[in-house]
Amino acid sequence: MSGTVHGAVVQARDVYGNVTVHAPPDAVVPRQLPAGAGKFSGRQVELDRLEQLESATGSDAVVISAVNGTAGIGKTALALHWAHRVAERFPDGQLYVNMRGFEPDREPMSPAEAVRAFLDAFGVPRDAVPIGLDAQAALFRSKVAGRRVLLVLDNVREAAQVHPLLPGASGCFVLVTSRNRLDSLVARHGARQLRLDLLTEDEAAALLRDRLGDLDPPVLAELVRLCAGLPLALSIVAARLDRRGTIPAANLAEELRAERLEALELDEHFNPRSIFSWSVRALSEPAARLFRLLGLHPGPDIDVRAAAALAGLPVADCRRLLRELLRATLVDEYLPGRYRFHDLLRLFARELAGADDDAQRRMLGFYLHSVWAGDRALVAKRVGVELPALDPVVTAMTFTGPADASRWFTSEHAVLTGLVGHAAATGFDEHAWLLALAMRSYLDTHGHWRDYASVYRAAIDSVNRLADPLAQARVHRGLGRALSRLSEWDEAERWLKLALDFTRRTGDRRQEAHSHEALSWLYSERQLSDRALDHAKAAVDLHPPGDNPVWRGFALNVAGRCYAALGRFDEALEHSRAALAAHRDLALRNDHTGEAEALNTISFIQLGRGELEPAMRSGEEALTLHRHLGNRPGTAEALERIGDVHRALHRPDDARVAWEEAVAILEELQRATLGEVKRKLAELDNPGHASSSPGT
Q: Sheet of 338-340: strands edge to edge?
């Protein structure tokens, strides 16, 4: 039997052949999808994921995809683009409703209002709609049962808006968008979360090219950077350039650099400030306050302890508020325990926060006292300074040893290297120079010399404003040391001589000695051995025998290196052994820095004296200590020395192993000595050209 049957169908007896039952010709098939974006770019991974989910609509359960992401990330655009693309796969209807979760002048739509609208869409007469949400939701489930229907629930604020609107049987696909993470949809209904992140640089550039055509590549790259990968901002830029017509894109880029949020205003409602504000209004007041204060942090990310210090809260309370911000997708926990938001949200939060010196002082105090504790874990003995008092509500970090401190410094590296400039720019000059001072050991021993120089440059203006000669000496010397590591000899020498002048003004013999030591190291690296020795001797003389043995030990080892470079090995060994004895006394208090440096020097001296087995033992001891300390330059030097001894002992394979490991470190550090170690490796393959000088 074939044909079209209207009304009820009753099978009296057996029926042979195919029977096709169609909906009545007057049945309503809703087509409610609003128009999508005229041009849609990117998001291929997310589109593919939706396709995968849609392919499961024939299973036993309804498929729910919850698309979430921060304001302006393009959730609605993605949902509508995909919904239009697959609309024909849902021949029984496509339903759409804006749940008004984040609108400035209207309350969120109730589930009752939404379900009545859906029943209207299916042509259910008003007098046939039952009273009460539960009964209406049941009628809606009956209407879509056995049908292929697509539901787009846009701009949802909370999962409670969604629960009554879900179909009860397979065949339907529900696409939910929200600024909030709707975790209870996952827990109760097995929804699949799909988080939208910022566009990549390539995706953002493609979006602008699609809408505007070709742009000058440098200008395009600048526009992409200034829009922070946020589709809302990119769309506004495209609209402004399209509206301006003949106005160059470079002009808009300049306007964005000057005042980003102002430049991204199209009208009263369509601009980042307005759209971000809807999310902030939905927060509890404590969470909204934390959001504002996070704008005062220089970024690029923050952990819960620093956030707690910034807000003046216990860590547990701050963690709870961060979870609220996470649910609202106003921050992103991109690594366990580390939070961030994009630049436009940061600017918005900073505007809302205004000036808050108390919050800045708490935050900077947390980092300063934590960095100082970390520095003491790396190098126990430092010339002491008085730190600004820490706010009683703030708890700084503590560390169990060098490895613990190194892990923390590494995780906070991007924050710490920008913090000195931030402190200087916000008027906290004392915090600025002390932060730079406390970061020296980490930045130096881990080979972050570009950052080492950048951090100390950022502190120069602060110490000059403070007009404290001792602080000026220490910061100028730190910058000179960093530049010496980078082999920028002339500028390094200039800063180190300025540091020496400042120390002479203070009358502080210890600081003057440290300036001589830094100049001695610089001249040694430039192979100006006589000048290096002069400064080393001056440093030793400024540390008389009754002075602190540790500081005298550093000066003695510097002198030992200079004597060794001049081939005066007996004098060199005398000085460096005296240095080792001083540092081993300190090593009993868990600081092996000076001991490791002295052993490196002694290994070189013993090699020069032809004492090969003692040179090997000293080198291996130095290597063990430098690895324990995480000192990469010291590790590379010890490996080079061990390779030198292996070569002298006619063990080329062992020498190769040591030198190749040293090369791997030196390549990463971009040290000037890299070429010398590579030359030694090359000589292993061409022994006829090997150098006859021991240790070179």
A: 302-303, 338-340, 332-335
Task: Look at residue 589 in the predicted model and tell me its pLDDT.
Answer: 53
Residue with tokens 């105090």: 365
- CA 634, CA 104: separation in Å to the nearest integer? 60
User: 393 and 460 in contact (C-beta within 8 Å)?
Assistant: no
The string of DSSP letters for 315-340 reads HHHHHHHHHHHHHTTSSEEEETTEEE
Q: Is the pTM of this model over 0.85?
A: no
What is the distance between the terminal CA atoms of the chain, rounded to a whole angstrom? 99
Q: How far apart are CA 66 and CA 176, in angstroms?
A: 5
- As given in the structure block, the two tokens for residue 568 are 């005066």
- CATH architecture entry for 283-354: Orthogonal Bundle (1.10)
Question: Residue 65's pLDDT is what?
Answer: 86
Residue 31 DSSP symbol: B
> CA 320, CA 317: separation in Å to the nearest integer?
5
Rg (CA), the chain: 34
- Residue 46 tokens read as 């997310």
Residues of the chain with pLDDT under 70: 1-27, 37-38, 57-61, 243-247, 380-383, 586-591, 687-696
In this structure, which CATH number among 3.40.50.300, 3.40.250.10, 3.40.50.2300, 3.40.630.30 belongs to the domain 44-195? 3.40.50.300
CA distance 581 to 584: 5
